[in-house]
Design goal:
Layout (H helix, E strand, L loop, with lengths): L1 E7 L10 H7 L4 E6 L5 H14 L6 E6 L10 H23 L5 E6 L9 H11 L4 E6 L4 H9 L10 E5 H4 L9 E5 L7 H4 L5 E7 L7 E6 H19 L4 E7 L1
Parallel strand pairs: 1-4, 1-5, 2-3, 2-4, 6-7
Antiparallel strand pairs: 7-10, 8-9, 8-10
Helix pairs in contact: 3-4
């Protein structure tokens, strides 16, 4: 039996790591740091910094490996994601087989929380289901980007007696979620808020990029007033850094 820990490490600030996550880090014999290309080296560096700050065991090994990336503009989104997950499963299974001995514990460090827009749990469960590896999986929750967004803007995510809907930019482009009052949007690569700025509706937006990091950017206001500014800032940030990681809340009035 091998133990696999999926550890939520927060939205980008090493101080987001919980005491439970620190304890889990120090149970691991091997920590896997998944790289996503030179443009996202900052994310890999943050994982290394978390290990530097919190690891107390001198014998814990840190293994870095390249994580497969998906096509950002696929013709068939679901098929593309399925292919990506199969590729990840192959990489993860190889790492677990080669780097984690029987009776040992391996850990994956995951942005935010393993439960929200992260495929690692599904992929590790798929590996366990093959029977080629006997795994015990444990999840350590982490601070999510929507929580950091709300804290940095000093707002609650929901209004009194109302719900909050969490979705993606791709789904937002299909229409405002039915009966939703407040909408948190993640994984938006196409300025999906822009279409709503043109409707004339009274909508507030609270936007944040690189939440918790040194590069953090915050913009808030009436969507019609700040949509163009957000688009310009997003474009500049993406050009400067090679990537952008942002989250925003839109709320109808």
């Amino acid at each position: 039996m091998k133990k696999i820990l999926l550890i939520g490490i927060g939205a980008g600030n090493p101080d987001h790591v919980t005491m439970q996550a620190v304890e889990a880090l120090n149970r691991a014999d091997v920590i896997f740091v998944m790289e996503k290309g030179a443009a996202k080296e900052r994310l890999t560096a943050l994982r290394r910094e978390i290990c530097r700050r919190h690891l107390r065991r001198p014998d814990t090994r840190i293994v870095e490996a390249s994580s497969p990336e998906r096509d950002t503009a696929p013709a068939d989104y679901r098929a593309c994601v399925e292919d990506l997950n199969k590729a990840k499963q192959s990489v993860f299974e190889r790492l677990i087989a080669e780097e984690v001995a029987e009776g040992q514990c391996g850990a994956f460090l995951l942005w935010g929380d393993p439960a929200l827009y992260d495929s690692t749990l599904r992929n590790v469960e798929a590996i366990a289901a093959t029977g080629r590896q006997t795994l015990e999986i444990e999840i350590i929750p982490g601070i999510m980007a929507p929580q950091v967004l709300a804290a940095r803007h000093r707002i609650p995510l929901n209004r009194i007696a109302q719900s909050v809907h969490i979705t993606t930019g791709r789904k937002l482009r299909e229409g405002w979620p039915e009966e939703a009052d407040s909408v948190v949007v993640m994984l938006d690569g196409e300025d999906s808020f822009g279409g709503y700025a043109e409707t004339g509706e009274d909508i507030d937006i609270f936007w944040g990029a690189y939440l918790g990091m040194e590069e953090e950017i915050l913009i808030a206001g009436k969507l019609a007033d700040v949509a163009d500014e957000i688009s310009r800032v997003r474009a500049r940030a993406r050009a400067a850094n090679g990537w952008i990681m942002d989250t925003y809340l839109m709320r109808r009035n």
